[in-house]
Amino acid sequence: MKLVQKIFSIGYVITVLFFLVCGIVLLGFAANEMWAAVDPAADVPMRQRFVQVLECIGLLTIAVAAFELGQTILEEEVQRSASMSAPTRVRRFISRFLVVVIVSLSIECLVAVFQLIHTAPELLPQAASIGVAAGVMLAAWGWFVSRNVAAENLEPTAMQQAKAEDHKIET
Question: Of 24, 22, 21, 20, whose CA–CA distance to 71 is shortest?
Fold first, then answer.
């Protein structure tokens, strides 16, 4: 069983490294897009520069999501040694994951609205649907958390171990 756990840990570490590489590549793309937007030598209209800055924001948002997901996997699956029950692990992982997804979707919605309002206003309902999806996910997450308070009360030891590891990882 320890061998299987070691294999899973290696798989998680490889996944974290891929998230890290993807985030770094996206940062490079964002830097390239930003340079194209502010390059004084380029003869580019202001509108196109604005769109390039918005593209940069979108790339940075996705890069942050990649970094956050990698960090979440690293902390929750590799660094933690407390054996929490499945419900406690699921609540913690889903909460960290949904924070990243909801914030990313919200920012992407804003970027899409800013881009489309001037270029293709007929596509604004599609951009709004991204915001609606983020709102629905936020409401569902809130409902999920409120329904799991009782489960946390049933597992006080697991939650104490998780909080102790949080403190250990933070320091």
Answer: 20
Mean pLDDT on 29-36: 96
Unique residue bearing structure tokens 């406690």:
88
Segment 59-63 long-range contacts (CB within 8 Å, at least 24 positions apart): 59/26, 59/27, 59/29, 59/30, 59/33, 60/26, 60/27, 60/30, 61/104, 61/107, 61/108, 61/111, 62/26, 62/104, 63/22, 63/23, 63/24, 63/26, 63/27, 63/30
Rounded CA gap, 56 and 35, in Å? 10
- The answer, as to whether pTM is greater than 0.90, is no
| Least confident stretch, 64-68, 92-96, 113-117, 134-138 | 92-96
How many CB atoms neighbour CB 65 within 10 A?
22
- Give the separation between CA 171 and CA 155, rounded to whole angstroms: 25
